[in-house]
Amino acid sequence: MKNWLLSGLLFLMVTTAFSQGKITGTITDGQGSLPGANVAIKGTKTGVSADFDGKFSINTTVNSGELVISFLGFEPKTVKFSVAEGTTKNLGTIVLTSNSNELSEIVVVGRGIIDLAKGRKTAIAVSTIKAEEIQAKIGSSDVIQALVNTPSVYVAGQAGGYGDSRISVRGFAQDNTAFLLNGQPINGMEDGRMYWSNWSGMSDIANIIQIQRGLGSSKLAISSVGGTVNFVTKATDKKQGGFASFGQANDNYFKSTIAYNTGMSKSGWGTSVLFSHWQGDGYNDGTKGQGQNYFISIGYKANDKHSFNFILTGAPQTHDQNYGKKLSDFEKYGRKYNNNWGTLNGEYLSAVGNYYHKPVANLNWDFNISDKSSLSTVLYASWGRGGSVGTVGSIKRTATDNVDFDATVAANLASTTGAATGALRNSVNNHAWYGLVTNFKTELTEDIDFNMGLDLRTYKGTHFRQLTNLLGADYYLDKYNVNIPNNKIYETNTNNAWAVLSNTASVENRYSWDYDETISYGGFFSQIEYAKDNVSAFFQGAVSNQSHERFDRYAYLPADAKSEKVNNVGYNVKAGGSYKIGGNGSFYVNAGYYSRQPYHDNIYLNYGNEVNPLTKNEKVVGLEAGYSFKSKFLSGSVNAYRTSWKDRVTTSSNEVDNDLQYTTNEGVEQLHSGLELDFVAKPFSRLDISGFASVGDYHYVGDAVKTVRDSDRNILSSSKVDVDGGKVGDAAQVTLGLGFKYEIATRFSIDADWRNYEKLYANVGSVKNNVELPSYDLVDAGLSYKMLTGKDKKRSVVFRININNLFNEIYVSELTTNIATNAGDVTINGLNANNKGYYGFGTTWNASMRFNF
């Protein structure tokens, strides 16, 4: 009996070992083959690689199971199979989805509006950061810190305080880089600038961030000279669940977040909500901050044709600030020195800061008209309330130049008139902004897609100054309001970021300035794209009209309060093509021309109603070419670009005798050119390596008209200056980076990133002779561990630790002056000690724990 059993078992084992079937298929990304893609039978050591055409053939000793298909830069895919003994099963074409643009967890976000590079068949220079990396590496930094490991990007300004970072792309500041939120333009309508303190919650709600350097794939008539940054937020999640997270960092920083998703009901409804709170003392002295972030998303899928998603989000915050100081002051008092704060009755109080609350709402509608046509629309609104904190009159100083509030109060109390000799104020910048973007897409033929749409916006900004603390005085005397001579102001207002939604000064209690700026915008855009076999080509065009008007209640009598209405027409055209070489490489060439309208703040002279005669459309010509490559172990790209920009306006600011001065240069021409390289490699399963390099030449051409104004916008000087050959500042013209992520054990990994910055010049606008800052290196490192919990192991706890500037590099991150070094001058780090600027942060850390349920 035993022999029969042993013989039977042996027979079954031999039969199983030698019974075979074959599985075949082709792996693509939806556009072309993926040569070298890995194909493995789950639970076994059997695996093969796809050939040059993406085809594979794998033998199996089991009749059914699952194939696991993976390729660098794409989401792994599991495909079930069943095959009879001695037969071949063809699984057909298997399409992998790029993990850099994965949106599978989103119900609706306006797919036809959001211009992700994935939607374009013709290549562009692009980098994408997913939510997982954003949440892991941001910590207490501004969200744009997530982009530092990409070519031609420089982030500065964070030393000013929470939310004060700035980003430049290919040497162009953020007012000349387009930023989009779910397809909605969010650059300031008046000046194109971005204030990241208004978006402090973006790291919580961003699903991906994609930076398209240069011409990009955006079809809108927007200011994408340096590039386009797309923030795609979370929307209503398909799955029920949520998370709670807690984080701590240096300088008493703390953050807590909670989020929950109801999941999708059988009737097609779902809701996702998130709320967070953060606070900290700031790295530099006197830069405390605190704020919240809220996010509500309601999704509804009516049927296969119609989907809707409503999002409401906001990030009310207040933070104290630091201005650039002389390097000699930092040498004397320490690199964290800030003299903008003091104490009042023993309590901490800052004289400089920012507060803002900007609720943003958008409603997305996706309409699948047919298999070939679709319509996507986003209707949006934002209501900004807040401004900057500062002083008015004479504020007393201590022996170390810090603010002496108690002495200022004593001086006010000693005043025989009761009028304030010094007080605290807010410069208020409120706005209401409404817009609509709609895009229709159709397949004209199997090889040709066509898009067209509208971009409509209306904006009203209200700007004035109000008092927040009279510091013991009875009132403040304002002598300059032409409609209320010698106005005595007794009222004070708050800078609480929640209360400012309703609490602002009445017209009679505003001082220094009080005016409205109204802007209307209408644009039409279209794109046609051809793709067949290895060739693709596109053409984009857009035309827009901007209408500007100004109404001043302070500096003009009622008869002259309304300015002349100014209309400007602008347009852009972009075209390009690409050619695939085999299945793993492609070349592209793109070109574009912009006739871009000037910003509102450059149209009216000296913040008055007089129209600036020097203002004209700015002219931009962009050329770029590149090559991209992808294989089993390596993917990368090389890009070259040249951008010429004429008739533009540059601005910069500098503190002089505790007062900000603004310098404006008009009629400026810039020329930016360079080379970029980036790559990702996976030499073996547990190790990812990434790197980038960029070498650029950014300089000014010809002459410019230079105007200097004080903080009250009075002209101090105006002249024509030669700026030919001068280096563009505030953007490192050479950047290098290398990083890795190594999985030490299952769900336990270590990562590090090294960056080098060279050819960085002072941020002083267009000048002929600029000061070069010393080059510097930074190393950031982190540890991650994910622990599975619960009986089904579907819950998890994620731990993360980051250390930034691991080796405590001492470096000057920016200068706001360009004082040359001469023989006998006192120098610090090779720079004239009288130069003003900031030191970058030393070693900082943050740690977080996130429970997913």
List the helices and strands and how they pair.
Blueprint: H1 2-18, E1 21-28, E2 38-41, E3 47-49, E4 55-60, E5 64-70, E6 77-82, E7 88-95, E8 125-130, H2 131-137, E9 153-156, E10 166-169, E11 178-181, E12 184-185, H3 202-205, E13 206-213, E14 227-233, E15 241-249, E16 253-261, E17 269-280, E18 289-301, E19 306-314, E20 317-320, E21 325-326, H4 327-333, E22 341-344, E23 347-350, E24 353-357, E25 360-368, E26 373-393, H5 405-414, E27 422-443, E28 448-469, E29 476-478, E30 487-489, E31 511-532, E32 535-552, E33 566-581, E34 585-596, H6 600-603, E35 618-630, E36 634-656, E37 659-684, E38 687-701, E39 703-709, E40 715-722, E41 734-745, E42 748-758, E43 760-761, E44 772-773, E45 776-789, E46 795-804, E47 812-815, E48 827-828, E49 831-832, E50 836-839, E51 844-852
Parallel strand pairs: 1-7, 11-14
Antiparallel strand pairs: 1-4, 2-3, 2-5, 5-6, 8-13, 9-10, 11-12, 13-14, 15-16, 15-51, 16-17, 17-18, 18-19, 18-20, 19-25, 20-24, 21-50, 22-23, 24-26, 25-26, 26-27, 27-28, 28-31, 29-30, 31-32, 32-33, 33-34, 34-35, 35-36, 36-37, 37-38, 37-39, 38-41, 39-40, 41-42, 42-45, 43-44, 45-46, 46-51, 47-50, ...
List keywords for this structure.
single chain, 853 residues, mainly beta, 26-stranded antiparallel β-sheet, five-stranded mixed β-sheet, 6 helices, 6% helix
Task: Provide a short characterization of the protein structure.
This protein has a 26-stranded antiparallel β-sheet that branches. It contains 6 helices and 51 strands.
